[in-house]
Amino acid sequence: MLKVGILGGGQLGRMLLQTAANYPVETHVLENDDECPAAHLCRYFIKGNIRDYETVYHFGKGLDAVTIEIENVNLEALERLEAEGVKVFPKPSVLRIIKNKVRQKEYYLEHGIPTAEFAIITNKNEIGQLPHLLPAVQKLAEGGYDGRGVQVIDNLSDSHLFFDEHSVLEKKIKIKKEIAQIVAVDQLGKTALYPPVEMMFNKDLNQLDFQLCPADIPQQVLWKVEAIALTVVRNFNSPGLFAVELFVDENNEVFVNETAPRVHNSGHHTIEAHYSSQFDMLWRIILGYPLGNTKYLFPSIMVNIIGGEGHSGKAKYIGLNEVLKIDNAFVHIYGKAETRPGRKMGHVTIISNEKQDLIHKANKIRQTINVVS
Amino acid sequence: MLKVGILGGGQLGRMLLQTAANYPVETHVLENDDECPAAHLCRYFIKGNIRDYETVYHFGKGLDAVTIEIENVNLEALERLEAEGVKVFPKPSVLRIIKNKVRQKEYYLEHGIPTAEFAIITNKNEIGQLPHLLPAVQKLAEGGYDGRGVQVIDNLSDSHLFFDEHSVLEKKIKIKKEIAQIVAVDQLGKTALYPPVEMMFNKDLNQLDFQLCPADIPQQVLWKVEAIALTVVRNFNSPGLFAVELFVDENNEVFVNETAPRVHNSGHHTIEAHYSSQFDMLWRIILGYPLGNTKYLFPSIMVNIIGGEGHSGKAKYIGLNEVLKIDNAFVHIYGKAETRPGRKMGHVTIISNEKQDLIHKANKIRQTINVVS
Predict the structure, then answer these.
(1) ipTM entry
(2) How far off is chain B from A35, nearest CA to CA, in Å?
(3) Hey, which family's this protein in (chains A, B) (predicted)?
(4) B371: Cβ contacts below 8 Å, ≥ 6 apart
């Protein structure tokens, strides 16, 4: 039985472990918090810092393979483990590209992958010399995570707010649609694509409302999305599961935004709506099994369950009973003891052949469920 | 967060725990073997004998609820726990009826539930006075499990083999079909029925080959199956999940064979083929949520993966890669370290709108996969 370690113990780890129980595999998890969502669903839980070299090295040493559920892990330890024969999904060389936003942009450029026009800057004074990129998005090269380290610059008047560090200044695209394309790559380099999903935003709150699968895009846009995502992933030369986030502009041009080299929020619907879920697929890749079937059984919408504003502390789920009455909805609560505003506490997937039914139920769920303390 | 205990740590416990991770619940498992399939998927694992009074009592004391994945548990401890306010699914009064095959038969008789004609005997000499029941099935009142304690008596010539104990002598029915009907009962007594499944036997080997869902039976037989199963379950006056096994004879008459008051082998296909699986449904019942949707997404067949004849020891799965190539198959390996002839080591569910595709794939899987040591 192969021994496989996961760096990180959040909800992605939790769902990986729910699926791991379908296969002969010995699971190990490394995470600082021994009440994290993945702590009690694995064979061996090791409490420790996934960013610490010695901790990650000793965790991985003796395992057959290691994967991640978050990018922010100790890369040097993974490189040493790989050199010593532990399989790492994705390869550390991919993480090195993706962890640094400057390096990631350069990678897209090197491989002719369309991405928003940008400049690399080292201090905020350079922004004044790049008026043609405004309005722009400024992204710190390192250390940004979950919305931090990213800001919009509309004009030069708020210059005291600009990041004064190594960063990417990226021209804002007039986005018509945001798409995520999940690509699986097995150990022989064989690939499989899921149908892309479409992010549906609440325009007033600038908040992700739902993810619709399959994305409602014309055939030509689908081809571009698939071709671009494949180009991104193939040049990594690494097995693993990858979520490529893309923008479609008003001219139906497609640009890569960024790539996550792991299971991803945009693939949660695959648990119930597809033959092989993204979690099932990653186990198939790691364990050397054939790739799974990426087709959907039904179109779906996924709604995140988010910690309510103004509530921090022990989580309570208001409206859960009402949501559980919905005939075609599947509820996932991640088992986080504490809620915080904006924290991902769970998700609901709805499946239906009727798009209007999906959107109607998704709206109902958003209005019904509330995580409070 | 409710604290819920499971007595038994086999594959049913494992699949219960895979699903429990979708809900806010603190899980506890009691089982003698700390490498059992459910040992590493729960919050608290307690090593101990589920048939021992003190062990079961101390396991359950302090929990909000207890359920079972096997009937052969200490009943007196559950009765005391129930008296002290722990919710037990199913109620111990149901287990008392079901654990004893004589009592179970009497229960069917008391409630006018059709079941094969029978006599209760206390020694083997009585069989000679009951020629009208032959050919018959003799079932020990207590202690039978998984095929043990049950035998067919065709005539009186093999009398030295008859059980000389308290047992049921049941006239053999000319079976056209074997059906299982799963019924869910919530804490308010509300019920939900899954579509019944049909057991498909290999006539040569007298071995269960597949389970087909929905069963291929005429509407009138379906109505009888549902009505009889509901009568069986309603008179238990207990919340829980119940699998009622029934025979359909050549005249389309329907008879109850026996009832399992728990999640059951005949409901495995519900994981992928139905909105709410039997495991999801039991959690909904225990946690006081609304009952789930029992409808199927697709017709399905379930194939058990059984330990091969002549193989005892560390399990190896021959042909697993081939099975994982099948586009519409879902594989579950139970994580049992050791295989034995006939041991349930896993299962595969196939979903399809085409019955012939289901049967074709099921045959292919049976021919392909082999558990050896």
Answers:
(1) 0.95
(2) 10
(3) Belongs to the PurK/PurT family.
(4) B305, B306, B307, B308, B311, B315, B316, B317, B318, B339, B343, B345, B346
